[in-house]
């Protein structure tokens, strides 16, 4: 049976370390602040925003959630971001995605100054990751790498396969694994004979958004399987991996819920604390 990549346990350990760092900053007279902008009434987004607020409270981070109506214009949203860019209390700015259809997501993300882009989505931070420079790394990919390293999964020289090519997860985790000297393959909806790729993966990251998409016959024995999917089936949350059948084959596996999701919020907190530490310097 696979070793469980337990996001709850790893995130709790991470939060303990961050608490001490927030305390050390406070002792220097530096407070840590995160502004979260939520546009519209998307139920999933409301849950995420609430969880982020709770995490801030736990660490003693100043948290401000700004809720805007669905009808907010591009100009209004960009003016708000401008104000937050100049607000010295806020070290991080997070615009909860997805935005309502009439808003230009890319333009909104570009408006956040890279130093305060704690989601790691700004084109400058994405470019720094791509070119191997230091910048803010997107929270979910950063959390996946943290999980693998914490569990002691060997990375250098290993075959890694990422299913999914989004800018939020697929591409950045591929770059992070490449930087760890993995040989990386990115698969997607047009990949021919997907299981031929996944079956040779020592590390398999599933980020497709399809319930139980990765089945036991697609997984190499002893592989580290990281499930990024969050799908609702009959009122239950399930991942992109058929956990029950894959777990006996895999060497390591992350559950859903209680896996990568917990790490994502932990990494958002870490990115915010790091922004405050840079400011303190």
Count of helix runs: 10
Inertia-based shape: globular
Largest sheet: 6 strands, parallel
- Could you name the ranges where pLDDT drops below 50 across 5 or more consecutive residues? none
Instruction: Estimate percent helicity.
Output: 40-55%
What order do the strands of the largest sheet run in, or round the barrel if closed? 1-11-8-7-5-6
Structural class: alpha/beta
Number of strands: 11
Q: Average pLDDT across residues?
A: 96
Distance between the termini: 46 Å
Rg from C-alpha positions? 19 Å
β-strand percent reads 15-25%
Reading the helices and strands in chain order gives EHEHEHEHHHEHEHEEEEHEH
Give your account of this protein's structure.
With 281 residues, this protein is an alpha/beta fold. The protein is built from ten helices and eleven strands. The strands form three sheets. A six-stranded parallel sheet has the order 1-11-8-7-5-6. It is globular.
Keyphrases for this structure?
281 residues, alpha/beta, three-stranded parallel β-sheet, 10 helices, 16% strand
Break the fold down into its secondary structure elements and pairings.
Blueprint: E1 3-4, H1 7-27, E2 33-39, H2 43-59, E3 62-68, H3 74-85, E4 92-95, H4 105-111, H5 123-130, H6 139-150, E5 159-163, H7 170-179, E6 183-187, H8 194-198, E7 203-206, E8 224-227, E9 231-233, E10 236-238, H9 243-246, E11 252-253, H10 260-280
Parallel strand pairs: 1-11, 2-3, 2-4, 5-6, 5-7, 7-8, 8-11
Antiparallel strand pairs: 9-10
